[in-house]
Specification:
This protein is α+β, with helices and mostly antiparallel strands. 40% of the residues lie in helices and 26% in strands. Strands 1, 2, 3, 4, 5 and 6 form a six-stranded antiparallel beta sheet that branches.
Length: 206
């Protein structure tokens, strides 16, 4: 299936990276700021959901459910942007120095697995760009609702629709509220206490 998360490759990477990692646990609402560390790090998440947010404009790039790896190749070419990792649901995992990650990839010949994982990440970012760049406000809201509908019930019950759409698209809250109200009134979506319950169907145009 296109864009399916390469789980087998993740577990082969995890098998070799974990012995060199430092365990962590974070509660919901925690913010991980990799730049605050004195070293470049690879973060591996085994449980929980995490979102990636660009610091410069607070733009949310997306939510990822575990298993997940961030900073797999940061030791090769450090990013010029600064990012936060927001803990959306309590999570656990481990981190290790990025230089150690590269050494382990080389030692255990895991470049194929790393390539598969990073290609999947790039495809997810491409899909996001297709949905949000050069499209109308309604098209962006619609695409975001459809992506939220794919989450499991636990994650949807924890993340408010209004806040998530605003963080992901930077569309004004008044516009988002107007669209959501119309979709609810037309029985296109169902929400409870600000959380998305289900989508019945979404019109292509608003």
């Amino acid at each position: 299936m296109i864009n399916t998360q390469p789980v087998d490759e993740f577990y082969r990477l995890n098998h070799r990276l974990m012995p060199s990692g430092t365990p962590f646990e974070f509660t919901q609402g925690s913010v991980i700021v990799p730049e605050e560390s004195n070293e470049l790090r690879t973060y591996v998440f085994l449980e929980g959901a995490i979102s990636l947010e660009r610091q410069t404009n607070r733009l949310l790039l997306g939510v990822v459910a575990s298993p997940a790896i961030f900073g797999l190749a940061i030791g090769v070419m450090p990013t010029q942007e600064q990012y936060h990792l927001n803990v959306e649901t309590s999570c656990r995992g481990y981190y290790l120095p990025a230089c150690t990650t590269l050494q382990l990839l080389d030692k255990h010949q895991l470049w194929r697995e790393a390539f598969y994982w990073m290609t999947w990440q790039n495809r997810m970012l491409e899909a996001r760009d297709q949905q949000l760049i050069g499209t109308s406000s309604y098209a962006q809201i619609r695409a975001t609702l459809l992506s939220m509908a794919k989450w499991d019930d636990t994650l949807r019950a924890r993340i408010g629709v209004m806040n998530y759409i605003q963080r992901r698209t930077l569309i004004s809250r008044s516009v988002i509220a107007e669209v959501l109200a119309a979709l609810r009134q037309g029985n296109y979506i169902r929400m409870e206490k600000g959380k998305l319950v289900c989508i019945n169907r979404l019109p292509l145009d608003y």
